[in-house]
Amino acid sequence: MVDETTLSLAIVAGYLVVALAIGLLAYRLTDRNAEDYYLASRSMGTVVLLFTTFATLLSAFTFFGGPNLAYSAGPEWILVMGAMDGIVFAVLWYVIGYKQWLVGREHGYVTLGEMLGDRFGSASLRGLIAVVSLVWLFPYVMLQQVGAGQALAGLTGGALPYWAGAALITVFMVAYVVLSGLRGVAWTDTLQGLFMLGIVWVAVGWVLTAAGGAGTIADSLASSNPEFLALGGGLYSPQWMIAQAVVIAFGVTMFPQVNQRFFVADSAETLKRSFALWPVAVLLLFVPAFLLGTWAAGLGVEVPAGSNVLPALLTEYTPVWFAALVVAGAMAAMMSSSDSMLLSGSSYLTRDLYRPFVAPGASDAREGWVARVGVAVFATLTFVASLFAAEGATELSFLVTLGDTAFGGYAQLTIPVLLALYWGGTTRTGIVAGVTAGQVAYLAHVLVSEVQFAGTTWLGATYHTWDYALWCMLLGLAVTVGVSRATAHSVGEDAAKFGVGAD
Amino acid sequence: MTRNRTDYLWVAAFAALVAFAVPWFLWRDATVVAGLPVWLWWHVGWMALASVVFYGFTRGAWDRGIDREVLRRG
């Protein structure tokens, strides 16, 4: 009998090698120019686009944060997820994504900042969008590395220390991202997406069989956590659920790695198919993942402080090799979001900051080279940050909190971008003011603790029971519209580039 | 950009899909059917319905409200 730790490590290592091999295969097909590196020459078909966007959305949250939440507060998060990713995001996929695809194909855009900068004739706006995006991307990538380190440390019972696990994942990811660009990322994402989907359903089957079926588990839930079966209650108020669904769905569209996906489809047919399949994909993945967390509560699974419910549940109900496979699945989830984030982050860095502000005359080849260095530097910095973050962070809700903050930060970009895409009256000053106001207000709420002033609590979690992120979005809307109304169009603005007539 | 009645019907359909993604009328309901709460079964059905509606949109209504023609000319 092979030692359990060795077996687990072998499974994870085997998985990493397969991912790397796919990256290498893609490398052989990759041209050296920037558009191919970042966008795979806008040639993506339905299956790959669907899976790469989907896998990109998934993160440590699907396997750890989410099930933990379902374990501690009940399974209603499934509904939030469905409303958010299944429906609101799908609608935005059309309203923002399809429009961006049309505009991007017309004018050859690679990044969001490039698109807006060109429309408003402003390099500063382009830089602003890139800086804002990178500020939120950094903690999110770090979060993935924290998750990977914890997962490997947990799987091996500490034999592989936290830092080594995070380092291992980082090195593999950087290797295939640097080599193969979006094509490699998209192919590995497809593998990772299929793998996760398969593994989570097998886990459900296994736990159900071992525990005597869903009915039996529901009975024990009814006595152990009766609140879990009733819709709502506890953490889940209507205001909270709506705010989460709206903020996260809007935020997702502006995440660099998701937003850049809007440019890569090979045809409108691809976007249509992905759009229609979206709710079903969400259903197939999140229902089982979060049910497992809920069931763990009904089955009385104990989760040690600082660890996650899913591994604890599987250790109790499935063989060691299967638990290791699931941790490999979680690893896949983290890598598939981080690899895309690294690639997109580096494209924002090189195209929207390096090229316009540092080296306007850089050749295409040089830009491609800087992009690869950018990936490695970005990953190294987030890795170092994750080592510090891990020391102070034992709380279970840590992953959720950090993740939510980044989504809210991106959500502040969405409304100004929507206005720019559809309202010819948007002015350069208006969008810059709107983006800045949203970011400043949101960051103040995230970073500054609440104060009492004039009989009201300011910078608290909610106003009138609604999440501050929503209010900041409204502020961004009001400021973009108000300032656009009050200012004239600047020289160099061209609303016709987005197909909207200027007022 | 002019909008016709069909545009508004689609907006209404999408709004309904969003609004009832959470079955508010089952709030605090804890009825279990086949091992899962009824509201979870609603979720399963609703996501399937959303997929069908979205498919219908891609077949008959794609390009609505998007200024595609203007974009081409522009």
Compile the SSE list and pairings:
The complex is a heterodimer of chains A (503) and B (74).
Chain A: H1 4-27, H2 34-39, H3 46-57, H4 60-73, H5 77-107, H6 112-119, H7 123-155, H8 162-211, H9 214-224, H10 226-229, H11 238-254, H12 256-261, H13 268-298, H14 309-317, H15 320-358, H16 364-392, H17 398-422, H18 428-447, E1 451-453, E2 456-458, E3 462-463, E4 466-467, H19 468-486
Antiparallel strand pairs in A: 1-2, 3-4
Helix pairs in contact in A: 1-8, 1-15, 3-8, 3-13, 3-15, 4-13, 4-15, 4-17, 5-11, 5-13, 6-7, 7-8, 7-15, 7-16, 7-17, 7-18, 8-13, 8-15, 8-16, 11-17, 15-16, 17-18, 17-19, 18-19
Chain B: H1 5-19, E1 32-33, E2 36-37, H2 38-60, H3 68-73
Counted up, domains of chain A total 1
Name the quaternary structure. heterodimer
**Gap from first CA to last CA of chain B:** 14 Å
- What is the strand arrangement across the widest sheet of chain B? 1-2
- The helix/strand class of chain A is mainly alpha
Counting helices, strands and paired strands, the structural category of chain B is: mainly alpha
**Proportion of strand residues of chain A:** under 5%
Intertermini distance of chain A: 75 Å
Pfam families (chain B): DUF3311 (PF11755)
Transmembrane segments (chain B): 7-27, 39-58
Keywords (chain B): Membrane, Transmembrane, Transmembrane helix
Protein name (chain B): DUF3311 domain-containing protein
Q: Can you describe this structure?
A:
The complex is a heterodimer of chains A (503) and B (74). By secondary structure, chain A is mainly alpha-helical. Chain A has a single domain (4-394), classed as Up-down Bundle (Sodium/glucose cotransporter). Chain A is 77% helix and 2% strand. Chain A has helices spanning 4-27, 34-39, 46-57, 60-73, 77-107, 112-119, 123-155, 162-211, 214-224, 226-229, 238-254, 256-261, 268-298, 309-317, 320-358, 364-392, 398-422, 428-447, 468-486; strands spanning 451-453, 456-458, 462-463, 466-467. In chain A, helix 4 crosses helix 13 (268-298), helix 7 (123-155) packs antiparallel against helix 17 and helix 15 (320-358) crosses helix 16. Chain B has one domain (5-73). Chain B is 59% helix and 5% strand. Chain B has helices at residues 5-19, 38-60, 68-73; strands spanning 32-33, 36-37. Chain B has a two-stranded antiparallel sheet. In chain B, a hairpin with a 2-residue loop joins strand 1 (32-33) and strand 2. The chains are: A mainly alpha (503), B mainly alpha (74).
